[in-house]
Amino acid sequence: MNKKVLITGSAGLLGSHLSKYLLAKGYSVIGIDDLSGGYEDFQPKHDSFVFYKRCLGKDEIFDIFEAHDIDCVFHFAAYAAEGLSPFIRRYNYQSNVMASIDLINECINRDIKLVFTSSMAVYGDQQVPFTEDMVPIPPDPYGIAKYAVELDILQANQQFDLQYNIIRPHNVLGPYQNIWDKYRNAIGIFIRRTLDGLPMLVYGDGKQTRAFSDIKYYMEPFEKLISSHNNETYNIGSNKHYTLTEAANLVGEVSQEHDIKYQIQYAESRHEVKHAYCDHAKAERELQFEDKTILKDLIREMFIWAINQKPREIIKMPYEVNKNMYSFWQ
Questions:
Q1: Cα Rg of the chain (Å, integer)
Q2: 3-state SS of 60-94?
Q3: Whole-prediction pTM value?
Q4: 62, 81, 125, 205: which has the highest count of C-beta atoms within 10 A?
Q5: DSSP 187-202
């Protein structure tokens, strides 16, 4: 049976990788992206891939569902800039909440399973590692937006029997990541700034801890969600955590392999959770998820990919709130 999967954010990191993986497995893939944070050339070129350039929450998508007999929707499209989200509140909620509503409605009306990519950001400042049974206390508008959509999906399941999964990946890395966004994806920013001859900016004392994982280990667990493990929430990512200073130094070590000098510069602290990483026992047990990320090898792969990328414009967002804006984003 040739299943049809719709992927929003198909030009981004998760979307481009899952599209290519599913196409290689014989699925048909319908992609939606407005190309505000992803790039069309990152998407697959395949006879079974159909792309629609649409802005979710603004553009009509009813016709897409009418044209394709969709079996499952992976909703990856989002603007995942936690630290920036207090300064772009309207854009944050438009991109992360309102952009989800039409998809949820279509999945309810057509009995289509929805796999929603939430975020570790929903947990807030709690004891690490975070587990799925913790009650979310999101610390910023981005986390609030993700949790709001989670709650809406749970309500749709209770009233309309919407079949769903909620996945909470964190600090995912790999080729086809947007390294030209100055507000998100720390290691991607470290790599891009180093290649541009600029110092890596580490906010605060650099002792914040995060766990970084390789995108390729997500593909098989994601495929399992298309037709099984309904109505469950899963953390997914690496069990090994690093301080941001350690991560920056690994980027520096890789840059030296290419005879590129590096520098680390410490900037003012920003509003963020100090220690944030997850427990993945549930995904390991139920989805056979196995993360084998070796961070330095992954950085090396990304570094080589980034060296060969064409120049792209650095994204700068228009701020809605300027009060207490950090100096490094001014």
A1: 19
A2: CCHHHHHHCCCCEEEECCCCCCCCCHHHCHHHHHH
A3: 0.97
A4: 81
A5: HHHHHHHHHTT-PEEE
Interatomic CA distance for residues 16 and 168, integer angstroms: 18
CB of 164 within 8 A of CB of 148?
A: no
Q: Which two tokens stand for residue 304?
A: 């080589």
Closest CA to 246 of 285, 286, 295: 295
Interhelix angle 244-257/186-195, nearest 10 degrees: 40
Alpha-carbon distance of 249 to 30, in angstroms, equals 39
Q: How far is CA 163 from the centre of its chain?
A: 22
Tell me: cis bond preceding 318? Omega within 30 of 0 counts: no
Please give the Cα distance from 295 to 241 (Å, whole number).
Answer: 10
Q: Which distant-in-sequence residues (6+ apart) come within 8 Å of 292 by Cβ? A: 214, 217
What b/e string do you get for 165-189 counting C-beta neighbours within 10 Å, with b at 16 or more? bbbbbbbbbbbbbbbbbbbbbbbbb
Residue 2's pLDDT band (boundaries 50, 70, 90)? confident
Contact (Cβ atoms closer than 8 angstroms) between residue 9 and residue 76: yes
Q: What pLDDT digit, counting tens, does each position of 5-14 carry? A: 999 999 999 9
Instruction: Of 94, 85, 76, 89, give the one whose Cα is nearest residue 33.
Output: 76
